[in-house]
Amino acid sequence: MAELSPTTPKRRFLLECSGACGDLGTFIPHVTGAITVAGLAPAGVLFGFAAFLIATGLLYRLPLPVQPMKAISAVILTGGLRPGEVAAAGMIIGVVLLVLGITGWIGRLASAIPQSVSAGLQLGLGLLMAGLGLKLILENAWLGFGSLALLFTLTRIPRCPAAPLALAASIIAGWATGKTGIASPVAVTPGMPQLVVPSWPEVWRSFEVAVLPQLSLTLTNAVIVTASVARELFPSAGAVASERHLALSSGLANVLLCPFGAMPMCHGVGGSLHSTASVHAPGLRRLSSAQCCSCSRSVSLGTPRRCSR
Length: 309
Fold this sequence. Notes:
Layout: H1 9-20, H2 24-36, H3 42-60, E1 66-68, H4 70-79, H5 83-103, H6 105-112, H7 115-139, H8 141-155, H9 162-177, E2 188-190, H10 200-233, H11 243-257, E3 265-267, H12 271-278, H13 289-298, E4 302-304
Helix pairs in contact: 1-9, 1-12, 1-13, 2-4, 3-11, 3-13, 4-10, 5-10, 5-11, 7-8, 7-10, 8-9, 10-11
């Protein structure tokens, strides 16, 4: 077979598939936890990510991540937020972001924060993610380190979609050795996103336990630091991902999608998407990694029957 040129549609599609796997390590644990622990409907959660990812790819033309809001996700898993409280938290933060974006205050806030602070936040977040990854690897050392070695090896091969190949090989190895599997009591039935209307008590509780811890993290990491990294990684095209635009897109997505069961979402500092897609495909414009990722996630809309304990 003839060698694929980096500019052919098939070649670009393979690189998009590789980039689409860049944030699965963040996406899967938070989303599965929200669905199984908090009882969020998979249809609303997956539809929300799919819609936001596709819109992000069409708007920014960059491999810009869309991730669950980490502080709210932690409260969901530890504090037992109900679906109405999750929806309320997302809508409240969405309104705050829209106000900051429309008035331009987010730009003033960004200019008031020194570059050294943004760099420190990037380093801290990177170390936290590295620590979390190492902890997960050590839970099944041979499979974790083997997958890591395979991924590094494949990234050395020119024009190789390393991430999806390493992910597929790891899944097959886990199933073959019995280390991973699908829980037999889980069943999936078709479903559509349903409207979630929070009550006033749910709005107040979500503001206290979820919105306040998340707001500072969103303003710094998801808006200010993300805009800074976008300009650094994409000098010619990253200006479109300005603080104001990121605040507006994140705010609008949460206001529109959280009432239909979506998790609170934001952009993030996703060097993984950059390293797995854009470094190998610098001319990428028409189709972002986000679109491929969202399409794969939106296929399996259903409502699981929770396992009895």
